[in-house]
Structures are given as C-alpha cells and as structure tokens.
Specification:
The chain contains 26 helices and 29 strands. By secondary structure, the chain is α/β, with parallel strands linked by helices. It is globular, with a radius of gyration of 26 Å. InterPro entries: DEAD/DEAH_box_helicase_dom, Helicase_ATP-bd, Helicase_C-like, Helicase_put_actinobac, HRQ1_WHD, MZB, P-loop_NTPase. It comes from Streptomyces venetus. GO terms for molecular function: helicase activity. Keywords: ATP-binding, Helicase, Hydrolase, Nucleotide-binding.
Length: 776
C-alpha cells in the first residue's frame, strides 16, 4: 500500500500551553488534521469517535483534551480536580497506555496522576488510586465488578469525571459488546446521580459506520472523525497457502501442511535474519505450539536464538505477562507467537513483520494484526497463512474479499434480555432503580422488571425497584460470556497453579486426556473436576495434540420471521440447543494426521439462543437430484461450509456460532439447516446472517464448487469441530442443493422488506428479543 499523504494543522487555541509544550517535547510540532478536529469536538463537550488507521496517533487525539482538562482542575479546592477514566479491552493495553501517559505527561509535573486499576493491582495501591489518581486506566470487567458496585468509595472520582476514553472500541461486539454497553449505561447513571456528565472519547483503527457503532455502545450521539491524515509506510501483504502433503485425513481427504507449522517456519526464518516479528495465532494452544517448534528449530541454528522467541497468551499469571511485555519492548525478544491479546494497540513499534496463522475471523482483526508491523513509519511485511478451512481457502483464492471490502459492521444488542436482566439487577443494587432510569437502559426493561420481581431478585417499593439478595448483584453478569467460574489448571506433583481456562471452554480443552500447553511446556490432563473447577495436569511429551468432538441437537422455541425462498423458507427466531462433548481425537503434530479417538463422559449443556434456518421441499430435492441416501450428507456439507463463510458477513468467528442439519426436523417437518449464535440470548450473528442470506449462501456455494478436491476436504466442507467425525458429507449434493435453494431467493432489499412486513404482522412491531424468560 502506498504511503498516505497528510497535512498538518494547528492545535486548538484553548489547549493549555503546558500540553502543547509536552506534545512538542515528545517530538510532535503540530497535530495531524484528524487529531486537531477530534480535540476540538471533545473540548466542545461532544462525544467523538476517532476511526483512523493503526499508528495514526489516535491516542494523542484523546490525550490532549484529557490532559488539558486535568491541568485546568489541578488546583481545585477538593485537591483532586477533574478526573478521566480510560477503558481497554485487555489488561496489557491498559498497562501499556499507562506507561505511555506517564512518559508523555512527565513535563507536566505531578498534575497528572495516572494509575492502572485492575485485577492485578495490589490491594495497598487501590485506596491511593481511589483517593488521589485523576486518570484511572482499567477494563470493563473491573468497572463492572469493582468500581460501579463500590461507587460510594469512588464518589469524589465520579463527581469530577469529565472524560471516558474507550480504546479499541470495535472489540466490543457480540455478547461482550452488549454487556459493555449496559456497563456504560450504569456508569452514566451513577455519574448523573453525582452531578457529572462525562464526554465519551472512542478510538478504533477498524470500524465500519463508527459513529453508529459508538452510539449503540454508549447510548449517546457521537461525532465521527475518520479522515486519516497520518503518513504510512508501505505494507507488503502476502497470502500464503500451505502445500498439500502425501497424507490423508478423514474419509481419505487430502491434508495440507498446517498453518501452525508454516507459521513456525516463517517465524524461525525471520528470527534467524534478525527481523523483529510477531506471529498471531487464533488459539492459546496454537501460540504455544508455534513457540515450541520455532525454539526447537532455532536451537539447531544457534542456541542463543532460541531464547529470543516466546509465546504470549491469556491465562498466564500477571508477572509472566509483564515480563514478556518488557522483553518485547526492550528488543530482548525478536519473535513472539501471540494470541489477539497483542492485537489491540499495544505499542510494539519497530516490528518489521507480522505472520497471521489463520484468518482471525474478521477483516477488522486482520487489519489490526497486520498494522502491528511498520508502526514507526517504515515499510513492513504481513503474511496471512491459510488454514485448511473453507473461509481461509476462499480468501486466498478471492483476495478481493479482503482488499476490496470494508471492515464488518459491529454487531451488538444491548436489549438482549439475557444481557439486560442481570445489569438491571446490578443497577438496582448500586442505587434503587426508578422509572426515570428506564429510558437509559432501553425499551426491553418494561417486560423484564416483572419477571425479575417474580423471581424475587427485585422488589418494587414506592417508586423504585430494590435488589433483595445478600449476594453481589454484579456477579450475575459474566460480561466475557465465559459461563461460570474459570477452571484452575494445577500441576499434580507440585500443586502449582499454571493458569486458568474459561468455564465454557473447559469441556473441550482440559477434559481428561487433553494435551495442555503452557509457556512452551506440554502437559497431559489427568482429571477434570467440574464441581471444584480444577483440572489436574502433569508434564509430558506426547507426539500428538488433541481436539474435542461434540454432538448437538436443536429445537425451535419461537419463529420471529419467516419468508419464502421459492418453495423453501428462510426463518429467524429463538431455539434451544443441547450440546455434549463426547470424545476427542489425537492428531499427530505438524501433519495433523488422526491417530485415534477416545470417548468421554461429560454432562450435556443447554443453550437458549437465536438462529437462522432454511428448509427445502420434496420438489426442490427432486430438482437438485438429491435422493434420501445423500440428503443427510448434502445438508451436512452445506451447514459446515455456511458456518465457515459467515464470518465474512458478520463480526464473528466460526467458533462463535454453531450449526445443525437434519433430514427431517421434528419442528419444521422438512429437511432443515440451522446456524445459531453460541451465546445465551444470541449475539446478533444469526440475525446478520438472516439479512444477508442470499449473498452469504451464494459465497458458500461458490466456495464448495471451486474447491479442487473430489469428495470434500477441510478447505471446503469438513469442519474441525464436527461432532460426527465429518460423516456423512456429500460435496456435489451440497452444491446442487444450494443452487436450487438460491434460485428462489429474493433480492436482499426485497427480502428485507418482506422480513419487516412479516415481523410487523407476527408481533405488531419491529423485531425484538426473545420472550424466553431471561431471569439469571
């Protein structure tokens, strides 16, 4: 990409001279135009979102008004003056920003007292921060569980709150984004009770319709600044498809070399050449694997080089994360295999290359990760290494889907009753909930409050609802959607805590017999105690990795919208999904060859969520030449491929969604394919699929038809998480089935009009959340 031209502008006149001096001391004589415009809006009291490219100086755009305001209040009678709050999606980003703020504000003296307040903050520091810090950097989790429930102790900070900075705001999507939207509404409510009305300053390098998304997140009108005037070095972007091997996988399908192995080779080569690089990996285990493989190969070249590569992921202990961050900043580390914990804005300037092992799920994440290289303005390299997956294969053969398309719209639904209900409880526990508060939380409150009262969670007294329990109401809402207490991973021989795994992922990642990686060491899980949330592991060196298998059934609870697709139907509504992890595969390292399968005995889990589904009739099957023998395989193949392609059309990952295909479903009485959100109450992904169904399923059909394999492979219709061992699958049948289905598909504008009309007829109003009781 060629460098972008920009022009300088002058600082807004109202910015304090001390701030201008600090900016100039940092080597910045004038702001770029977008920085100056954003600062002007903020100083005028308007909430603003800065949506410009990676390393375009967004932090300066919000720091200048924040620091200027903190200086203006430095001599306030209460000794504290104005305050500001910074929210980051990860602890690492907040810590990194705090370091940058302290360096930047050093010429301003002690007027700026910045401090990180999160789960890693020592208890003896917390009281000082509450009383004296005027710039607090934290994350939505700590705001939700720590600050808002304890608002009386934060009263002096909240009554003086002038700015709330929300960095990397595009990450607040799906269920997580919906929870954060309600946390921000609770914050606004408490600030109003203390007499404050803070301005919200949002930043993102990759957001579609940024003002709309920011407004949905904050519940406020937001001004958009999106004209990027910063310079940029050239970025060379390579699409890399691993070669086919001589091995064969399930059902004899050809097997490509894994993206993990290719990325490890690339990271090794770049390290040997002294190129500072990060390899982004989609999973914690993948980050550990790439680190281990690269270290082994580097030790064959030069033992000292092996120490200059490491892994970085969530689940590490705080001291481990901080040590890795320091080593990366100092240049002690040349190569790092990381999950998206390092994707989000951390200043790792000086990187020359980024290797992306597998499409990260959205174009927004892809450009965030690629933008980590070249942050000092120099040219850089980004390589996307495709996994053996329908979406990755489609993208490397259709680069226009990456380079000619804007980033995805941010999908979130603050009115999701499974999200809203626990936040109403939390808000009532913070301050009794009045009728005047309900507009802030949205129209769904009216239906939810009687349910919460019937469940004896809230009680109406005079004009307000009160929290009735002794427990902490904030504990009802798990804003990351982890689904319960994290599972502790403990080494059997020593009793040492290695780290944690989210409860929702524990059945599939730390089941008995699973291979668990931590800091380059390999462990085998000996037992998983679900009652005590503990997985016991011991160090081992098996020549394989493990992948869990599950089974899923689905029932329709309510059909919200139904429109004709020729003889078939396209539907959207509420479903109940029952899922159970039943076994795991052992796969040979590097090649991915399946070595065997072991049964598991784990309890089923039930999920009420939202889904899109389509049906076909006997006449359509006849036209598609689909007989009963291949019907199950054709539906199953179409389901797998459609799940693989949906991330192109909604801000989701294939692991955020699930699917079921049934030749005769008991609720529809027809052959049916379901695709559902993998979160309670839904996350907006299935709804997005419903509204883009024609384009989505057309791309699905093309991805299957254009694959060079004979009978199906991981690049088109085989799924890495299929509970049925990718059996049955029928590639040609899926192509014919989708062809006939799409013949009857209306144009998307026509379909949208039909959907709106059907919704009004069915419900008497616009589509709303499920009526299923969402009581926590």
């Amino acid at each position: 990409m060629p460098p972008r031209e920009g022009r300088h502008a002058v600082w807004p006149d109202r910015i304090r001279a001390e701030v201008v001096a600090a900016v100039q001391a940092a080597g910045i004589q004038d702001p770029w135009a977008h920085q100056a415009r954003a600062a002007e809006h903020a100083l005028d009291g308007e909430s603003v979102v800065v949506a410009t490219g990676t390393a375009s100086g967004k932090s300066l755009a919000y720091l200048v008004p924040v620091l200027s305001t903190l200086l203006d209040g430095a001599e306030a009678p209460n000794g504290r003056g104005a305050t500001a709050l910074y929210l980051a999606p990860t602890k690492a980003l907040a810590a990194d920003q705090c370091r940058s703020v302290k360096e930047f504000s050093h010429p301003l003296g002690h007027s700026v007292r910045a401090a990180v307040y999160d789960g890693d903050t020592a208890f003896e520091e917390r009281e000082w921060i509450r009383q004296y810090a005027n710039y607090v950097l934290t994350n939505p989790d700590m705001l939700h569980r720590g600050i808002l429930p304890s608002h009386p102790r934060w009263s002096s900070f909240l009554k003086s709150l002038r700015y709330v900075v929300i960095d990397e705001c595009h990450t607040y999507r799906g269920v997580f984004g919906s929870h954060v939207a309600q946390v921000l509404r609770r914050l606004r409510r408490l600030c109003a009770r203390y007499g404050a009305s803070p301005v919200f300053l949002l930043a993102s390098a990759t957001a579609a319709e940024p003002a709309v998304a920011a407004g949905r997140l904050t519940g406020l009108p937001v001004v958009e600044v999106a004209d990027d005037a910063s310079p940029r070095g050239e970025l060379v972007f390579a699409l890399w498809e691993p070669p086919l091997t001589d091995l064969h996988g399930e059902k004899g399908a050809p097997v490509r070399r894994t993206a993990t192995a290719e990325a490890a080779d690339l990271l090794t080569d770049l390290t040997v050449q002294g190129v500072r690089s990060v390899a982004f990996v989609r999973s914690r285990r993948g980050a550990e694997l790439i680190s281990v493989i690269s270290q082994e190969r580097l030790s064959e070249v030069d033992r000292s080089l092996a120490r200059r590569v490491a892994a970085y992921r969530g689940g590490y202990l705080p001291e481990e994360r901080r040590a890795l961050e320091r080593a990366l900043h100092s240049g002690e580390l040349l190569g790092l295999a990381a999950t998206n914990a390092l994707e989000l804005g951390i200043d790792i300037s000086g990187l020359d290359a980024v290797v992306i092992a597998g499409y990260p799920g959205t174009r927004a994440s892809l450009w965030q990760q690629a933008g980590r290289a070249g942050r000092s303005g120099q040219g850089a390299l980004a390589v996307l290494v495709a996994r053996d997956d329908p979406l990755d294969t489609f993208l490397v053969h259709h680069p226009e889907a990456l380079f000619d398309q804007p980033v995805e719209s941010t999908v979130l639904d603050p009115d999701n009753p499974y999200v809203l209900a626990p936040h109403l409880c939390a808000a009532a526990a913070e301050l009794p909930l009045t009728d005047e508060d309900l507009d802030l939380f949205g129209p769904a409150c009216e239906a939810l409050l009687p349910q919460l009262e019937a469940a004896k969670l809230l009680r109406r007294r005079t004009r307000a609802w009160h929290w009735t329990r002794r427990e902490r109401a904030a504990d009802l809402a798990d804003i990351r959607g982890a689904g319960g207490r994290p599972v502790q991973v403990v080494e059997t021989g020593t009793g040492r805590l290695l780290g944690t795994v989210d409860a929702g992922a524990s059945h599939s990642t730390v089941h008995e017999g699973a291979v668990h990686l931590h800091q380059g060491r390999t462990y085998l899980v000996r037992s998983l105690d679900l009652e005590d949330s503990v997985a016991l592991v011991e160090e081992a060196a098996p020549p394989y990795s493990t992948v869990a298998r599950d089974t899923t059934s689905i029932s329709v609870l309510e059909t919200d919208v139904e429109i004709p697709w020729g003889d078939g139907r396209l539907c959207y509504g509420s479903v109940e999904v029952t899922n159970q992890v039943v076994s795991f595969l052992r796969r040979r390292l590097i090649t991915g060859e399946v070595l065997g399968e072991t049964k598991l005995d784990l309890p089923p889990r039930t999920l009420r969520t939202r889904a899109v589904w389509w049906t076909v009739t006997e006449d359509q099957l006849d036209r598609a030449r689909i007989n009963p023998e291949i019907l199950g395989g054709a539906l199953h193949a179409a389901e797998h491929a459609s799940i693989g392609l949906l991330p192109l059309f909604a801000t989701c990952d294939r692991w955020d969604i699930g699917g079921v295909s049934i030749p005769l479903h008991p609720d529809t009485l027809l052959p049916t394919v379901f695709v559902y959100d993998g979160h309670p109450g839904g996350a907006g992904f299935a709804e997005r699929a419903f509204h883009t169904a024609r384009t989505w399923l057309t791309a699905t059909r093309e991805a299957i038809a254009s694959c060079e394999c004979d009978a199906g492979c991981p690049s088109c219709i085989q799924s890495p998480k299929c509970g049925n061992g990718n059996d049955p699958l029928h590639k040609r049948g899926a192509v014919r089935l989708l062809t006939v289905l799409l013949e009857g598909a209306p144009e998307e504008k026509e379909a949208a009009d039909e959907a709106d009309e059907a919704t009004v007829q069915a419900t008497g109003g616009p589509a709303g959340p499920s009526e299923a009781p969402p009581v926590p």
